[in-house]
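Go through the following before class.
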Amino acid sequence: QVQVVESGGGLVQAGGSLRLSCAASGSTFSINSMYWYRQAPGKQRELVASISKGGSTNYADSVKGRFTISRDNAKNTVDLQMNSLKPEDTAVYLCKAEIAVVGTMWSVYWGQGTQVTVSS
C-alpha cells in the first residue's frame, strides 16, 4: 500500500513564495514521473509541472520562470518551489505520481491536495 501526501500550502501575499512537497510512503515501490496539478473552483484542472525519473522537467507557460519542480529519488519526494506568486495561482495543488509497488505494474496515485491562496 502506498500513500501520497502533499504539504506546504497556505496563504501568501502576491509576490511571495511557497514551497510545496509531495511524499510517497508505505510499501516497497519505485516512482516514475511525478506531476503537480492545480484546480481552482469552476476551472479545469491544469497541469502545472512534471518531472521524469531522470529529472527532465516541463512547465505550464503560466508558471514558467516562476515555479521550479524537483525530486529526491532517495526520499521519494517531489517539491514545487513557487516564487513571484500571483492571485491567479490560487488553487488546490495536487500531486500525481506514477508508482509501481514491487511485483505490480505502474499505477497512478493522487494526493488529496493542498490549498494555496495568494492575496493581493
Remarks:
- The radius of gyration is 14 Å.
- The longest strand covers residues 29-39.
- The mean pLDDT is 95.
